[in-house]
Amino acid sequence: MQLTNKGSVATALAGAACALLGTPAAQAEEDMLKDWKFDTAILYYGETDRVSLVEGVINASKTNDDDSLFNVKLVIDTLTGASANGAVAQPYAQTFSRPSGKDGYVVNAGDTPLDDTFRDTRVQVSSSWMQPFADTWRATGAVNVSTEYDYLSLGLSGLLEKDLFMRNTTLSAGLSFQFDSIDPVGGTPDALTSMLTPTYIGDDNDEGEDEFEWDDDYEEGENKTGSESKTTTDLIVGVTQVINRRMLMQFNYGLSVVDGYMTDPYKLVSVVDGAGMTQDVIYEDRPDSRTKHSFFWQTKYALDSGVVDVSYRFATDDWEIDSHTIDSRFRFNLGDNNYIQPHLRYYQQSAAEFYRPFLNQNDPMPMYASADYRVGEMTAYTVGLKYGHKMENGHEWAVRAEYYQQDPKNAGFDEPGVLADLDLYPSVKAVILQFNYHF
Amino acid sequence: MKRKLAAILALVAVAQLSGCASLGVQPWERDLLAKDEMALGAEGVDLGLDDHIYFSKEATSGGRSFAGGGCGCN
Amino acid sequence: MAIQQAYTARNGGHSELAVSVQSQDGFMLGTFDAMASPCEILIETADKQLARHITQLACNEAKRIEYKYSRYRTDSVISAINSSHGKPVAIDEETFRLLSFANTCFQLSEGMFDITSGVLGKVWHFDGSDRLPSQSDIDALLMFIGWQQVELTAGSVALPAGVQLDVGGIGKEYAVDRVATLLLEQAPEVSVVVNFGGDIQVTRRRMNDEPWYIGIENPLKDEQGETLVKIFQGGLATSGDARRYLLHEGKRYSHILNPKTGYPIEEPPRSVTVAADSCTQAGLLATLAMLQGKGAEDFLASQGLTYWVYR
Fold this sequence. Notes:
With 439 residues, chain A is mainly β. Chain A has helices at residues 8-21, 28-33, and strands at residues 36-47, 52-63, 69-80, 83-84, 94-97, 104-107, 114-115, 120-133, 137-148, 151-164, 169-182, 188-189, 199-202, 211-213, 224-225, 228-244, 247-260, 268-272, 278-283, 289-303, 306-317, 322-334, 338-349, 359-360, 377-390, 396-409, 428-438. Chain B is flat and about 45 Å long.
């Protein structure tokens, strides 16, 4: 350098550095932090020949200067299509009343009876606030409200967390209360009483709709009363532990006590004779209390370019339903801005103690009975793939496609007469498609 | 059966906690753990949607978080 | 839901902004990772909550600058400028000031400090091996080097196609100074040392006028041990080749390249540390000293500076 005057370069640089740093940062934090973050998603769930669901979620989170976090979520879903009503298939056509009692539907010979009355829209709003305090503690409070035209749910929950050992260990404990009220269409049916079977009289009317008539003695809603409710109290305690630089584990124990009406007011049980022919169709009934224990373990392992996430849950309750769930996600990053994530889930449950695919006319009526395959013995598996992309502006989108199959199984019941020739445990096959956007 | 479960639970809890002090990382070793995708709550929206589906179609719910479902979707 | 969220808030929501604060003897130490360096914030306080807040502010600002000026991030301002293919790119006031500073340094150093010289990184890989690039490889790149080709105005910058900017040489020191300025505004009573991998700035003097003792990189550590520096205020920056060099036929090539020839500077010191009023100033002086090769000590002496040179 030719500038050799003592100190001149240093002085010039001092001046230049001042010019560089002169103006203080104009709230630069905002640009980077964008303290509000939004997650939105739209999901389509469709079972072959049965129920379909479209669900939209908007989740907004705001992180404050003191690290407290406010979250609000809106969920709207609409359900259409047919669900199994619990009655068994027969080698001849059957008629059933709709829950409203004012209409009926016909099921073809050999088909699993499906009720397609369910067209429902649900709206749910939930919100939470997480407040850190005393450096290693966090307290969270949350509320949620969900409403459908026959169901209302109100919930409140609290969670406390404490970090230990340089935040390598976190202990947590949470409590939640939920109050649910159900006001079934047509009223709550009296337990195990008969559904009024209509007679199909043809479809000769102007609109080509099926028409039905009932017995002269039929009094609409005579065995149905008003609304019911239940309360759920949940306790969850957990430990999260950093194992090493790549691995994290969580273990939770959950206790759930439900008290109140847990029967599905729209589900039926067929009462059959020795030849497997339906003599009567009655409304199901489930116990009015349920105590569940669950043990959940999850591990996340960081690969150089991706994550392996595996969890196992064992649940057991006093309805004698035991279940095992293994859920795994394998994320593979493709460069800095893309990833694919295969998903595999396996689920297995044993039948509830009161589960009966149908009842035998000659047996004494049990105290509780449900033919809903969802409390029966079943295995289910899910296979899926997700692809995500991060855009230049920092927003992210992702698409997910999954296949979910439920295989109900015979929990050890004989199939008398004609029932032996029918498929009483059809598989339910569903496709799941989802699009996410994060900004 | 229930007593055996309680014993297993206690054992696991103790094993976890007593091992806790020797496991873990220094603050400057958190590079991989701090990535978004390593958070236990990552993909929260997906997990919530899945929970809703499985709560409606199966008899078990919860585990990761509270078991109460909040909807009549059955 | 709640457990997932709380953990997300701690680690997932802004996981790249995670900071850690520990109590030390007489001060609080906040640490995080930014700009490919371990970053330390030494805070003279016993209030851990305050220390946490200060560390978080520092981390946020450091990350903001990193995301804005890192050439490894496709969404940075620098990457936008580097992919403009000859067209002018609109820039904000901060970027204009940073590039103006780079311009001043270019002038003061008579072209030896040049932020367009980063393209040489395509052919020079300082991994301790003996692989040197060929003359033709270097010649091919020389036409894309030369700050004089860049048109800088208050609102825009235009590079000829093929020319690339790399502010890595001033980015870290700039971040240190910006963080120090920010912390002095936010916590004017508290003495804080901002140390991003050896580039240091002190916000104000300590209570009772005690100095801060900070260890600086000594490449000859094994023989001489770490050097402990006593600093009351101002900035400190180190330029060095600690692990980046090539060894070819017994000759050591440091990673400091002469932008005019495309070859490494001959006989540079292993490490230069300079003290000045600001970290940016100190950093530039250290770099200019390295560019002097064997004349490093003379240069620094002629500027009347406090410095440490290791060969």
